[in-house]
Amino acid sequence: MNVRISQERIEFQSLDQPIAGVLFLPGDQGLFPALVISHGYMDFKENYFELCGYLAQRGIASLVMDMHGHGESGGERYHIHLDEWIADIQAALDTLQAHPSIEPECLGAFGLSSGGTAVLEAALVDPRIRAVITLDATVRPLLSVPERIGMGFLSTLGRIKRFLTGRDLRISLVREVGKVEAAHDPEVNEQWRSNPRVVEMWSSFPFPGSEASVDVDTLTRIHRIAVPTLVLHGEQDRVDSPQTAHVLFDALTCPKELHIIEGNGHLGHLDRNRDMVMDLTAGWALSRLKSSCRPPGECACGSSRKRSME
After folding, report:
1. In 76-85, which positions are buried (b, 16+ CB within 10 angstroms) versus exposed (e)?
2. Nearest-angstrom CA–CA distance, 302 and 26
């Protein structure tokens, strides 16, 4: 299938800050279902262009944006506050509903890592989200007790510095991040950690402002999500164990499906088996959005737990 794809650069407001995004559209005329794409912490929208292009080839529009504090968007640089990211997703939904090529009742959300946290939280408060896809989502605390104590100490120092100088405490974690296996494919991992934009971000890690990327209690609320939710996670995820995906899946009470994808790490949309991630994402969006856009809770689908092989 070779569908002509169009891209539109879009800017909208979220909490009085400009949010930069790109809307990918199938070239055919008509109304299309759409996904809001939320990247992870210390990430940017361009890393999702391949996914968005694939979705457009399958007849699904997508709006990928730089979240608050990231990329070309406004906000405190490299801070993450879930209330801001939820507001970004809701503002993106407003933008999609106002677009002449989007079916306003057929909207879903996709998120990676902390972006997965954000789309789950957004689905709890915004009924316009009719389907959710998470990839390596963070739903529970990531750090060990000593690591949490250390982060708390640095955040306290940062608050003191901010009080005295008006500026954050910024620490370079480039060396530490270089040791992390973000992607299971060594080539993809090296491309990621050597990317100048990635190096720039991790050279300016903020204290406070980063806690919400690792100190998460979303798991306590997700049983209230009513819309169909697809949980994707890499079998070789060294950042957040695939056990997190099983815990997330078990806590969900909505129509749901789980795929643990062998050969993928934490960056499943870029990793060795990204084609499988893209195919599963498109299939879920098509079946849950395009075929019938009904109010949350009316889907008659069941649940399934699967292991996707390499």
Report:
1. eebbbbbebb
2. 30
How far apart CA 54 and CA 24 sit, in angstroms, is: 10
For residue range 53-111, list pLDDT tens digits in order: 999 999 999 999 999 999 999 999 999 999 999 999 999 999 999 999 999 999 999 99
Which residues are bridge partners to 117 per DSSP?
A: none
Domain residue ranges in the chain: 5-142+212-308
Give the confidence band of 179 by pLDDT, cuts at 50, 70, 90: very high
The residue to which tokens 């998120």 are assigned: 111
Out of 2.40.50.1000, 3.90.180.10, 3.10.690.10, 3.40.50.1820, which CATH number does the structure's domain 5-142+212-308 have?
Answer: 3.40.50.1820
Q: How far apart are CA 309 and CA 235, in angstroms?
A: 10
In which band, very low, low, confident or very high, does the pLDDT at 172 lie, cut at 50, 70 and 90? very high
Q: CA nearest 14: which of 62, 71, 67, 63?
A: 67
Question: Using one digit for the tens of pLDDT, what is the confidence trace for 110-159?
Answer: 999 999 999 999 999 999 999 999 999 999 999 988 999 999 999 999 99
Is the Cα dihedral 245, 274, 106, 10 positive or negative?
Answer: positive
Look up residue 273 and give its amino acid: N
Residue partners of 152: CB distance under 8 A and separation at least 6: none
Kind of pairing between the strands at 102-112 and 129-135: parallel
User: Under 8 Å CB-to-CB from 15, ≥6 apart: which residues?
Assistant: 68, 84, 87
Dist. CA 32–CA 106, nearest whole Å: 8
Q: What pLDDT is attached to residue 202? A: 97
Please tell me the number of Cα atoms within 13 Å of 124 on its side-chain side.
18
CA neighbor of 125 nearest in space, from 85, 181, 162: 85
pLDDT at 302 > cutoff 80: no
Amino acid of residue 206: P
CA–CA separation, 166 and 160 (whole Å): 9
